[in-house]
Amino acid sequence: MTEGSPGQQADVVVLGAGMVGVSAGFAARQRGLSVIVVDRREPGSETSYGNAGILSSGSIFPLNTPALWKNLPKYLTNQHAALRWNMPWAVANAGWVIRFLASAAPSQTKPRAVALNGLISTSLKLHRDWIAQAGASNRIRETGWLKAWRGDGLANAKAEQAALAEYGIKSEVLDRQAISALEPNVIPAYSVGLLHTQTASVDSPGAVVKDYARMLAAGGGAIRRSEISQIVPQGDGWRVQLADGEIAARHVVVALGPWSAELLQPLGYRVPLAFERGYHQHFVPNPARKLLRPIHDADGSFVMTPMEQGIRVTCGVELTARDAPSNFSQLETVVPLARSVTEFGEPVGERWRGARPTLPDSLPMIGPAPRHRGLWLAFGNQHIGFTTGPGTGAAIAAMIAGSASPFDTQAFAPSRYIA
Ligand SMILES: Cc1cc2nc3c(=O)[nH]c(=O)nc-3n(C[C@H](O)[C@H](O)[C@H](O)COP(=O)(O)OP(=O)(O)OC[C@H]3O[C@@H](n4cnc5c(N)ncnc54)[C@H](O)[C@@H]3O)c2cc1C
Fold it and tell me: Where does the FAD dependent oxidoreductase domain start and stop, copy by copy (predicted)?
């Protein structure tokens, strides 16, 4: 890690060392560019630390599809574990809410699913290469991801399987016996399951980001720890102002996850970025109830993943201001449900809160800032940024190098929201 050396220079400065920023840095370095990645914390310490660790092949349908309209009456009660929202925030951000709901129109589903499928499948290939290259293959589990219903979920499971199959994504519908064969240690609480067979998971998302950052540094890239205060156009490049100095660069990549919009405001960009907050808590695993893969409890609206630190229970979405005080009620609702399946022990460590960075159409911004040469935007990866970091980074690096992106990035153009 580079400590406060003033007056550094690089071809590319990446702002943010989450999964997206580290991936962009690594991909740019692979193209022979000199790279500095800057973050105020250790790589992978924020949203890319606290997620459910799923490298998801099947997350091509975001939260705002026509199903959201169907579920809206139950979400409006503000009691459902899947989605809670803060009324004053919703009023103040009515424009974002309306655009988010408008993106749930049936005509919007297929184009976004096609776009996300391209981004996800590229990302999964890269993860599988990079994790081996980083010497971290021990962290990845190729055991899939099980979505499971306690009640009668057969029609839902079959519909989801058919929808995924349209995009070539494989899954298997399981009955109670097949679920028990797959996860022999858990209590047979589920009557139907859908196993996403091409999905993988990791046992420590933050550690994987750190492994990728080490791989970047070993290949000649630099990681610098500092607070970024400003980015300023300078000549035909940029000056990045830090708490302890500055960096001059031809290209700047903004990969600050949920903090991305603020730094762009002084340049005249008003990015409609909102925050789907989420929480996690770890528990001492019960050796007799060992989980072999992440389970998404569809009726309970939570995910439990076996992690290095214990069983990580993550909960649904809380739509509110990024830095509003924590409200653990969703987590408190789902923990007893999770415990009833795996009978885990005491909590380990503190409860964690993070914010999924989300644009109204639930697609990330991947591409050039409309009015500034050499300024690249790589954020808004909502529920799947741990999965899609490598594809996002590879596309940005290709654009910087003037090469073709490994997948079609048209749907992700920043110009759809900012001019
Ligand atoms: C509960 C939950 C579960 C999730 N589960 C999954 C999952 O299973 N699979 C999946 O693919 N995705 C999942 N996600 C989504 C995923 O975690 C995010 O989309 C992803 O981590 C975003 O990565 P990022 O690099 O854009 O942002 P971050 O990881 O947040 O990185 C941004 C970085 O910018 C730095 N930064 C910000 N401002 C400054 C500044 N001024 N100066 C210096 N540094 C700064 C921060 O320190 C941070 O390190 C989940 C999210 C949540 C909340």
Answer: 11-399
